[in-house]
Amino acid sequence: MPVHQTTKNGKPAMQWGSKGAKYTYTAGNKASRDRARSKAERQGRAARAGGVWRMNCREIIEQYLRDNGYDGLSGNECGCLVGDISICDCLHLEDCVPGHRVMCGDCERADECVDNITKGEEFGMGGQYCVLPGKKGGT
């Protein structure tokens, strides 16, 4: 249950898990967002230390991806974003590597990834995309 972005009373907020407190921040203000994230992370550490919660494999993977600047996982014939890892229950760990999202039409490799396209509109993600290996910009 890593920290994720949400809203509270129409304002952007950070929250640990699905039941943690929501810490609002000023939109567009990185320092404010970082303070809210820090508060939510502190709540998560307290919950784990108290034995309230332990991370499962999916949560460990998502936390690693977020902490290291990746958008999701790229596999042989699929891709999934942080927050929707294995949304179709097809997680093949031996085939997946950290990757970055590329919206269809923005990709110079579009002819290569016909099988890797995920229909993001089905999951409220704004259109078709694929997840390519590595970080955006080739790192």
The share of residues in helices is 10-25%
For the termini, the CA-CA separation is 27 Å
Sheet bearing the most strands, described?
5 strands, antiparallel
> Uncertain runs with pLDDT below 50, 5 residues or more?
114-125
Can you characterise this structure?
The protein is an alpha+beta fold. Helix content is 22%, strand content 26%. The chain contains two helices and eight strands; from the N terminus they run βββααβββββ. The protein is globular and about 40 Å long. The strands form two sheets. A five-stranded antiparallel beta sheet has the order 5-4-6-8-7. The chain folds into two domains: 3-49, no CATH class; 57-133, no CATH class. It has helices at residues 30-49, 57-67; strands spanning 3-8, 11-16, 22-24, 72-74, 79-81, 97-103, 118-119, 128-133. It starts with a strand and ends in a 6-residue tail after the last strand.
